[in-house]
Amino acid sequence: MVVHRDFRRQGVGSALLDDCCTLGARWEQPKIYLHVDVANVEAQKFYKKQGYETVRLDPFWFGFTRRYVLRKI
Ligand SMILES: CC(C)(COP(=O)(O)OP(=O)(O)OC[C@H]1O[C@@H](n2cnc3c(N)ncnc32)[C@H](O)[C@@H]1OP(=O)(O)O)[C@@H](O)C(=O)NCCC(=O)NCCS
């Protein structure tokens, strides 16, 4: 997920994430998981603010940077 630099910190990312939860519930998939790069500390703060917690370090990585798996609490 990426919000244009000029529109960050205005609630756009939160609104998009909320809509993902709404769609998940509609599709009877209430558990929401996502990945975030270990080095992306700012995005981790964003996801924590939205109620996500770190589950584990993703064991699968093929040339990507290491990522955490997060889930909605
Ligand atoms: C992460 C990202 C999607 C957040 O989108 P956004 O529209 O700026 O987020 P919001 O305005 O809804 O932020 C809600 C809250 O999250 C937290 N937050 C958001 N960005 C933050 C940052 N850079 N540092 C610390 N906290 C942050 C704040 O608590 C914020 O509330 P506040 O502005 O009232 O303090 C956006 O910064 C982005 O596109 N980043 C680059 C791409 C990226 O890293 N994506 C994630 C890939 S997994």
Brief synopsis:
It comes from Cymbomonas tetramitiformis. With 73 residues, the chain is an alpha+beta fold.
Write up what this structure looks like.
The protein has helices at 12-26, 41-49, and strands spanning 33-37, 52-57, 67-72. It has 73 residues and is an alpha+beta fold. The longest helix is centred in the first third of the chain and has 15 residues, at 12-26. It is globular. It binds coenzyme A. The site of coenzyme A has 17 residues, from helix 1 and helix 2. GO terms for molecular function: acyltransferase activity, transferring groups other than amino-acyl groups. InterPro entries: Acyl_CoA_acyltransferase, GNAT_dom, N-term/lysine_N-AcTrnsfr. Residues 1-73 form the N-acetyltransferase domain. This is N-acetyltransferase domain-containing protein.
Question: Could you name the key traits of this structure?
Answer:
73 residues; alpha+beta; Aminopeptidase; three-stranded antiparallel sheet; 2 helices; binds coenzyme A
What order do the helices and strands come in, and which of them pair?
Blueprint: H1 12-26, E1 33-37, H2 41-49, E2 52-57, E3 67-72
Antiparallel strand pairs: 1-3, 2-3
Bound molecules: coenzyme A.
What is the strand tally? 3
Strand content: 15-25%
**Sequence stretches where pLDDT stays below 50 over 5 or more residues:** none
Under CATH, the topology can be stated as: Aminopeptidase
Distance from N terminus to C terminus (CA atoms, Å) equals: 19 Å
Q: What characteristic shape results from the CA principal axes? A: globular
Domains counted in the coordinates: how many?
Answer: 1
Give the mean pLDDT: 94
Structural class: alpha+beta
Ligand list? coenzyme A
The Cα radius of gyration reads 13 Å
| Strand neighbour order, sheet with most strands | 1-3-2
> CATH class, please?
Alpha Beta
Encode the helix/strand succession as letters: HEHEE
* Share in helix: 25-40%
Tell me the name of the CATH homologous superfamily. Answer: Gcn5-related N-acetyltransferase (GNAT)
Main sheet properties = 3 strands, antiparallel
What is the CATH-assigned architecture? 3-Layer(aba) Sandwich
Structure annotation, total helices: 2
GO molecular function: acyltransferase activity, transferring groups other than amino-acyl groups
Keywords: Acyltransferase, Transferase
Protein name: N-acetyltransferase domain-containing protein
Domain N-acetyltransferase: 1-73
